[in-house]
Every structure is written in C-alpha cells, then in structure tokens.
Amino acid sequence: MNDLLQGDTALITGAASGIGRGIALALAHEGVGVVLSDNNAVNGQHVADDLNATGAQASFLHADLSSADGAERLIRETISRLGQLSILVHSASPKREENQTADTVTDEQWLAMTNVNLTSGFKLGRAAAHHMRDNKIAGRILFITSLHADTPRNLPHYSASKAGTTMVMKELARAYGPHGIRVNAIAPGAIPGGGFSADPATLIDKIALGRVGTPEEFGAMCAFLCSAHAGYIVGQNILRDGGQYPGTY
Prior knowledge:
alpha/beta, 40% helix, globular
C-alpha cells in the first residue's frame, strides 16, 4: 500500500464492478478509507471484503440512487460511518442496452438513467460539498462522464444525462472552488465491465493505442486527480480513451 492519499476518506458509487471497482481499489491502495456503494449488494460486499483482506479499510453501503432521497441518505450514512468525507466519486450508472434508441427508449428507462446519473449526481455532489465546506475540508469530487456527452451514441437517455453531468460538474466547481473543493470529471473510452456492452473486438482498430482500457488504469487516473499533484486542476472533463476516434461506438 502506498500513502499518496493517506488519511483521506472516500465514497465511491457504482463500486461493485467495472470502472467503479477499479477506482475503489486504486484509492484504497493509496491509503484512503473507502465506503463502496452500489445497488448490487452481493458484489459490492465482495469487493469490500477483498479490500479488507489486503489491509485496506473498506465497507459497503447498499444504495438505490434512483429513489428521491437515495443520494442525500447515502451521504449521511457515509459520513456517519467514516466520521468525515474528503473524496466523492460518482461512478454509478444504470446498465444500458444497445436497443434503447430514440425510437424505442421508454419513459421508465429515461427516468431511471437521468435519476441516477444526473439528478442523484447533483444531489450527491452538493451534499458532499456542503459537508466539506462546513467542515473546512479541501475536498475532491469526481464525476464519471462519457465520450458521448459530446457525441451521440444512439442512446439518448445515456448521452443526455452524461452531458448534463458534465455541466453539473462545472457548476459545482464554480460554486465550491472558492472553498478549496476541487470538482472534476473523467470521460472514459472503451473500458469493459459495468455498463459497457459493446464488443471490444469491433473497437480496436478505432483506438490509437490499439487496445481497450482497463478499470485499473482508470482508477490510477482518479487517484492522481484526487492527489496534491493535481492541485490546480478544477472544473475539467478529462478524456481517458486511448486516442479513440470520435463517434466510433
């Protein structure tokens, strides 16, 4: 275990698999006490148990971020468990299917996606920022967005919610930056796991590095952005896509 972020405490949503799990592992490896959250209680608890077996400090909280009060309740429960919160990473996003196009996406699918990605993202970020501001914590908040916040993917509920999340990040950065709270976002490219459903084999020749990314690489980027090395990076949506050509999936 390293100590790049020793003494920090973090909440990571969507931490049961994929990118969220990679972020949880990376932050715990840097000495962060972590609370993992997901709507998959079995997998989420397994990740926490695996981390604790390595000597990390991890626990799991089940959360339904599609509910009206799920975000604020999760922040309260996290602070109660950790004592304070200095890092929030919002990675949770409902699984999307390639057939959920503008012609076929239902109202229920639209609301589920926007409730978790956008509405709960704003509520989580604001509640965490209030705690950080009121307790004079130089906090860091990260949102996981998407390449398709800028380029449509024929998944309108996903692309629109990620575009909105990007602007939520910028608004929170502007509002809470004066209190020493750094808010940023990372847009992943092709990283299998979690909600990623495209066939990686169809993407290789469209990525400059000639391969898909890994959750571990993404987690390392999150750890960097939460560290003092990134102390002057605020309000940015940073691409981490291996040089993927725009609009290719």
